[in-house]
Design a protein that fits this description.
Length: about 550
């Protein structure tokens, strides 16, 4: 059972009693609720007998008696009497004895009785204020603890469950619930609950369009209190609230950066007027919970993104292994290449295919799009080309087979450009087919020729037939194959590098004695000088061949 000294210290109580004695000229003592123990005993004083000359008044806190005040007149006789000791302790000058004895008059009785009740009321209010201060301190401590939980925990459901349970304990509520807006923001979906029965939770959906209270909370971003859920017409499920024993309620918006995320609902089992501090505390908790929800959502998205990035890195590693690690060494040929994807995964590829001891296939391909989709299409084209190049001699037929596979296995908007040539090292004969690809450049005698013979792109018409061209390679020839990532490179003036600059760059490099690696580096350097730090918008592939 709580006592007055739980809220007012004994030293403070003794000082108050001294002030009351001086003000009233009476002996004032305070006892426990059952009158058995004096809470602030006088030195060497025994328990006073309960007599008609003593006036008692209860000290209450929330309708519970926590102490009793006893007021008695100060009397002269009996130097060791409790009244006399109280007078000496609190420095009160005792009045002279009245005529006819020490019995107080009826007016004095009324005055002492009123004083006893007034003193009890003062002590009750002091105890109530002290309890309220402690409650506020505890609530602020709870808010601080919850804030720590919001920032430290990653388990969103555990955080929301902790919020509802803590709100019930701190605000002395019957129940608490957190409802979050659905993805279409049309319904408030239950996410966490404390002390609500399954029957009440299964009462039906809370549609924002049908709940005027929630509409007001979510639109005005302000808390709304309900005095009596059983009769308030704004409440959608009044009968269910009556069956659950819910009376008053407070609905607080869960807001994150000005955007409502849900509603925190606090229920009381009796009629209750939520004060300013309770509303402020609930709104602070609701805002913290909203932040926790968004942070958990962002954290989950970050985890998913990291998993996706990890998968992409693994896929990129696999794709890099599809690109030759080094150029093949062939008689009279110096070969080098570069591959720079725009993203983790690219749609370009180049390949060298050994066809027996004397023949080398050279392929440069650019599939539509970028990223994952393009990489899968690239892998498909590469596998098809390798399969058919090893079994079909005629180049136009090889390209036809690759085209048939692409048309059969992909959608209408999936296509690719491909340049494929074969060098016969015994005769220095070069045979090629250009399937809609950026024309490679053959530099001979300081002049550049574009290799365009072939036909349309792959993946459009399964019955299309391509043509091929054959010519002899000569000492000093330079062949540059590339994708449109080179020509489409943009500078900060939105001007593309273009085919003319590519041609000029390779013509300049071909006049030097640099090897194939130097040819590639020179063209790449010219492109980068032109584009500067502008972001690349496409994959880039180059293959250079110098005939020795």
């Amino acid at each position: 059972m709580p006592s007055l000294t739980d809220y007012i210290a004994t030293e403070t109580l003794a000082q108050l009693l001294g002030l009351f004695c001086r003000a009233s000229g009476a002996a004032v003592r305070v006892f426990s609720a059952d009158s058995r123990q004096e809470l602030c005993p006088l030195p060497d004083a025994s328990d006073p007998p309960i007599t008609p000359r003593q006036f008692k008044a209860p000290v209450t806190l929330q309708r519970r008696v926590i102490a009793r005040v006893v007021v008695s007149p100060l009397a002269r006789p009996g130097a060791d009497s409790p009244a006399a000791k109280a007078g000496r302790l609190f420095s009160v000058v005792l009045p002279a004895a009245k005529r006819g004895g020490d019995q107080p008059t009826t007016g004095e009785n009324r005055r002492l009785r009123r004083f006893a009740y007034l003193l009890a009321e003062v002590l009750s209010r002091l105890a109530g204020q002290q309890k309220q201060i402690r409650a506020r301190v505890e609530e602020l401590a709870t808010l601080y603890r919850l804030t720590s939980e919001f920032t430290s925990r990653r388990d969103l459901q555990a955080v929301l469950d902790l919020v509802t349970q803590t709100v019930v304990e701190v605000l002395d509520a019957k129940a608490c619930a957190i409802r979050m807006l659905s993805e279409d923001r049309a319904e408030l979906v239950i996410k966490a609950v404390a002390n609500l029965s399954p029957r009440y939770l299964d009462k039906g959906p809370i549609l924002v369009s049908q709940s005027r209270i929630d509409q007001q909370v979510l639109s005005d971003l302000e808390s709304v209190s309900v005095d009596d859920m059983r009769s308030d017409k704004r409440v959608v499920y009044r009968r269910e609230a009556r069956q659950e024993g819910l009376v008053s309620a407070l609905c607080c918006p869960m807001v994150y950066k000005g955007r409502p995320e849900g509603v925190l609902r606090i229920y009381k089992a009796h009629k209750h007027k939520f004060d300013w501090f309770e509303i402020s505390l609930a709104e602070a908790i609701a805002a913290g919970a909203a932040t926790a929800v968004v942070n958990a959502r962002l954290y989950a998205e970050a985890v998913r993104l990291e998993n996706t990035q990890r998968q992409l890195r693994m896929a990129a590693t696999v794709q890099r292994r599809m690109i030759p690690a080094e150029a093949p060494r062939m008689p009279f040929l110096d070969i080098d290449a570069v591959y720079v994807p725009c993203f983790e995964l690219g749609g370009d590829f180049y390949d060298f295919i050994r066809l027996g001891e004397e023949n080398l296939g050279l392929a440069v391909c650019d599939v539509v799009g970028k990223g994952v989709r393009a990489s899968l299409l690239m892998a498909s084209v590469r596998a098809s080309l390798r399969a058919h190049a090893s079994n079909v001699y005629e180049l136009s037929q090889v390209i036809g087979q690759v085209n048939a596979d692409l048309c059969a296995d992909t959608e209408i908007n999936d296509f690719a450009t491909l340049f494929y040539g074969v060098v016969d090292t015994a005769t220095k004969r070069f045979t090629y087919v250009n399937a809609g690809h950026v024309p490679p450049l053959l530099v001979r005698d300081r002049q550049a020729r574009r290799l365009t013979t072939g036909g349309r792109i792959l993946g459009i018409d399964p019955d299309y037939a391509w043509r091929h061209e054959v010519f002899q390679l000569q000492r000093g020839d330079v062949l540059l194959c590339y994708t449109d990532g080179l020509t489409d490179a943009m500078n900060f003036e939105d001007e593309s590098f273009g085919a003319q600059r590519v041609e000029q760059a390779i013509l300049t490099a071909a006049q030097t004695d640099c090897d194939a690696g130097g040819l590639v580096k020179h063209v790449l350097w010219e492109m980068r000088k032109f584009a500067g730090l502008q972001t690349r918008i496409d994959d880039l592939t180059m293959v250079a061949v110098r005939v020795l």
